[in-house]
User: Fold Palmitoyltransferase from Sparus aurata.
Amino acid sequence: MDFLTLFAIYVVVVLTCIVLVCKYSGQQQTPFSIVFNCVAKVVSPLTPKWLQKLSQRSLHRLFHQRNNMFIYLHVLLEAAVYAEFTYEVFGFCREMDTTVTSLSVPYVLLAVKTFFFYLCIKRDPGTVTKKKVGGQLHIYPYDRRLFHPGVSCPTCQLVKPARSKHCRVCNRCVQRFDHHCVWVNNCIGAQNTRYFLLYLFSVCAMAGDIAVLTGDMLLHAVLRSGLLSASYIDDQGQQQPAGPLFVVQHLFLTFPRIIFMLGFLVFVFFLLAGYALFHSYLALVNQTSNEWYKSRGYVCQHCHPTATADQLCNPSPDHSKRYYYSRGLLRNLGEIFFPLQPVRKKDN
Ligand SMILES: *[C@@H]1O[C@H](CO)[C@@H](O)[C@H](O)[C@H]1NC(C)=O
Ligand SMILES: [Zn+2]
Ligand SMILES: [Zn+2]
Assistant:
């Protein structure tokens, strides 16, 4: 197979991964899990019982119990990228007179990101507790559409406040529940959605900035090598100009680690940028991922006259407005950054 085909396959695979992850993130039945289940079914009769049990248990521990695995993985990937950047790209850039100021931006971003990452991990997302539930019940009114009054959580044995949800991984109810994020090993809820948003944006900025610096470095390397005006002698003994294919091949062979890192960064950037935009959109319309996901299944009799009874939302005068909770973009954002606190009961 020639190099260009291989390269095209590489690009297609990366793009397909991005599209698939964007499309299916947050859903229960992802193509990945379907494929995984099929493979498991085929492989399981061939593997010994103890191995099956072990793998099941470790999978369970990895995805259905709180654990720091993904935090370690996150730090490891980050360390790899920064090591590569510091040891290879930094030196090249210095030689090409990139200013120290622009080369230190990635490190500043790393510090900022780490700060928000830490807050995401450490901050209580808004756990519903016996002590606080009285006040938490009054933060949001029940909409009688997705959240109904008087429903208790069977596990926590507490009345569920509106917009809350029980997190099965953490085994607690969380107020204004968004989702459980394995990368920070914590739920994203009322009290840490703001840090989560800032974290997403700082990771994007980090990946984007390093990718731009690296791209710039590669561009300079190509210009400097004179490859663009070079030529070679082909099989027939004719002189041929070295085309772009030649340049790409040269880069791959000369800087394999840097090219690999750049590919990874571009992938992470587009993935997280999409995710960050989705979460910003949710923040702007006063919705959580949980509500967005739940309300997609809802249809209105006005829009779907043939819908069955259990598919119907409660008739509401505002049914035509999809986001009838939104009180304006700024106020919605304000509520993310200054979350409503549980109402304290006055002691008389
Ligand atoms: C957000 O929606 C909730 C209902 O889900 C509502 O009680 C609250 O007032 C809304 N906040 C804003 C700022 O619109
Ligand atoms: Zn619960
Ligand atoms: Zn959780």
Notes: The longest strand covers residues 165-167. Residues 167, 169-170, 180, 187 surround zinc ion (ligand 3) (CB under 6 Å).
